[in-house]
Each structure stands twice: as structure tokens, then as C-alpha cells.
Design goal:
Layout lengths: L3 E3 L8 H4 L8 E3 L20 H7 L2 H16 L3 H11 L8 H5 L10 E7 L4 H15 L6 E3 L2 E7 L5 E7 L4 E6 L3 H8 L4 E4 L1 E5 L4 E5 L4 H41 L8 H8 L17 E4 L8 E8 L4 E8 L2 E8 L3 E3 L3
Antiparallel strand pairs: 1-2, 3-7, 3-8, 4-7, 5-6, 9-10, 11-12, 11-15, 12-13, 13-14
């Protein structure tokens, strides 16, 4: 009996409705020659999509469509956004890192305020040393040395008043001048100077601490702070003196009252009045007179008074430093005329 295999399919649906090709089962018997090969069917299908339409477009048309989509999504012109970003992007200040390390480029900024780091213990002495050395070695260089400090007044036990400066920025000296490499290296070599306040510039090959100037707004804030602190201290010192005067007056009155009687009332009252002390008038400040600085950066310096302005309270004094006269602007309250 011949055995055979039946190849069948469970596809009972209409081939036309589902889009399948018709399937015809056939029976293969054992020991029978295979049926002749039939012609193979080649099926080709073309799927149309939206991508085919875009591929057919030219590069200019695709660019136009892309720009339209960007404008519709962003709500604004994307070209304007790109231009704004390019404008905000900072441009390179120096062409190369060697030009950035050149300290002579600081002279193009003109006179600026710089911060010099000094020792806290000898801050006032170091500031005076810098001023003297700059006046000696750079006579044509206009400069200003400023140490923000409050002149603290205290009454000692013997009745005298001591004045000592209290620095607002310990370890910092403000210098106003035109900076270049020669001046920078000269100040760095002064005794007690630790360098300038700045920032690191350069690349991995070489880096230096380049001085950074202080803005005018920040310097005005420093001047304002020093003035307010000085006025506050003077007000507190005046209040303390007034309180001490009231206490002294109360003590003297309590010591005198038990000794009073009906017959010596007027006598004790006259004795308790303080006697006027004879005060000698100090000589007037006149241009050409010899003056001495009692406080400030140039304390205990003697010089010749060149100019005085009562309205602004500033005076110009000429000091002899290393055999050369240097003009310095000081406060009128800080100088006293010397008697001949």
C-alpha cells in the first residue's frame, strides 16, 4: 500500500478579500517521481510613502521646507535668535596667549586703581615706603597711595587723647597710577609687598597672576564707607566725652555739697566754678608756612604749605623726600602750623 503525505493549509478564507495568493494543496506519494517544476511566480509590490515625495524634491526645496518648520515651531524668526546669540558671545580680547601675558598691555587702560597685598603688621609703613620709592624712581609718574582707615581717638588716664588708625581692609593698599611691566616688577620687589590682587591668565604652557583693576564704582563705595565709619566714630567719641563730663560734674558737686552751710553758700559756689585755663592761640595756616602732619599716612612729616582750600578742607603740602620736593594733598585737620 502506498503511503503519502498530505500538505494542507487551514486557510479557508477568500484570497481576494484578504489579499492572499490562492493556495492549492497537492498530494505527494512515496516512491513516485516528483512533479515537474512549475514556473515560479515573481511578486513585486511598490509601497508609496511620504518619504518618496521628499526624496524627489531638490536640495533648495528641502531647505525651504525645513526653514518653514523652524519658523512655525519657534514662533519667531530663527535667524534673529542666532544673530542675538552671536552678539552676546564675547569676542577674544587678545590674539594669542603670549599677548595676554604681556603686562605692558595694562598701560592702555590709563590710570586705574590697583590693590597691593602687604603685611598686616606693617601696613602703614609699607604704604609710606611705596610712596617714597615711587616718588624717587619714577618722578614723572603721577600716583596716589590710599590706605582706608578710621582714626580712632581714645582718652588716656593722664587726660591726653591718643589717635591710632584702624584699617578697614587689613593687608590691602590701594594704588592709583598707570601700570606697566616696569612699575609692576618694581612694586613687587618692595619690602613687605606680597603682590597684586588679580586673576590667573595664560594656558597650560605658562600662567601668571595678572593684576586686575578696581572699578570706579567700587572705589566710590570704599571712600563712602571710610567716611561713614569716621563720622560714626567721631560721634561716639563725642558722646563718650559728654557722658564723662557729666559724671565728673556730678562727682565734684556731691563732694562740695556736704561742706556747704548757710553762711558760706555763695563762697562755695564761686569756688566750685572751673577756672579758665590760659590757652595760647596756634599760628594760622598760611601758604609758605612750615606745617607738621599729626595723623594720616604722612604722620610726623614736616613740609611747606603750598596751597589751602577752606571750602573743601584740603591742603597741598610739599615734603622733601630724598632731596626732592613732592607735593601731597592732605586734610586740613591733619596738619598743624609749626611755631618758629
Amino acid at each position: 500500500m502506498a503511503q503519502g503525505l498530505l500538505l494542507w493549509s487551514l486557510c479557508h478564507f477568500h484570497s481576494q478579500s484578504l489579499g492572499f495568493l490562492p493556495f492549492t494543496p497537492h498530494i505527494t506519494y512515496k516512491n513516485t517521481p516528483p512533479p515537474p517544476r512549475s514556473l515560479s511566480l515573481s511578486i513585486s509590490a511598490t509601497l508609496e510613502s511620504a518619504n518618496d515625495t521628499t526624496q524627489e524634491l531638490s536640495a533648495r526645496e528641502r531647505r525651504r521646507l525645513r526653514n518653514e518648520r523652524r519658523e512655525s515651531k519657534g514662533g519667531a524668526n530663527w535667524r534673529e535668535q542666532v544673530e542675538e546669540r552671536l552678539l552676546k558671545k564675547p569676542k577674544k580680547r587678545y590674539a594669542s596667549w603670549t599677548e595676554e601675558l604681556n603686562l605692558d598691555t595694562l598701560a592702555t587702560l590709563g590710570p586705574q586703581w590697583w590693590v597691593v597685598r602687604v603685611t598686616r603688621v606693617r601696613q602703614q609703613e609699607t604704604a609710606e615706603l611705596i610712596a617714597r620709592l615711587l616718588a624717587r624712581n619714577f618722578p614723572d609718574l603721577p600716583f596716589k597711595v590710599y590706605v582706608p582707615a578710621v582714626q580712632v581717638k581714645r582718652r588716656l588716664k593722664n587726660g591726653s587723647i591718643s589717635v591710632k588708625p584702624k584699617h578697614l581692609f587689613p593687608g590691602c593698599v590701594f594704588l592709583n597710577c598707570v601700570m606697566n611691566k616696569d612699575i609692576h616688577d618694581f612694586i613687587r620687589e618692595c619690602d613687605g609687598v606680597g603682590g597684586f590682587v588679580g586673576s590667573k591668565v595664560g594656558n597650560t604652557k605658562k600662567q601668571i597672576n595678572k593684576p586686575r583693576p578696581v572699578d570706579e564704582i567700587d572705589m566710590e563705595a570704599v571712600f563712602k564707607q571710610a567716611k561713614e565709619e569716621q563720622e560714626k566714630h567721631e560721634k561716639e567719641f563725642a558722646e563718650e566725652q559728654q557722658q564723662e563730663g557729666n559724671l565728673d560734674f556730678g562727682k565734684s558737686r556731691s563732694s562740695v555739697e556736704p561742706q556747704l552751710d548757710s553762711n558760706s553758700t555763695t563762697k562755695s559756689a564761686t569756688d566750685s566754678k572751673p577756672k579758665r585755663q590760659s590757652t595760647k592761640k596756634s599760628p594760622k595756616l598760611v601758604p609758605g608756612s612750615t606745617v607738621r602732619v599729626v595723623s594720616g599716612m604722612f604722620a610726623e612729616f614736616e613740609g611747606s604749605l603750598k596751597k589751602i582750600n577752606r571750602k573743601t578742607g584740603q591742603a597741598t603740602v610739599g615734603f622733601m623726600i630724598f632731596g626732592k620736593e613732592s607735593l601731597v594733598d592732605v586734610n586740613v585737620n591733619e596738619i598743624v602750623a609749626e611755631t618758629n
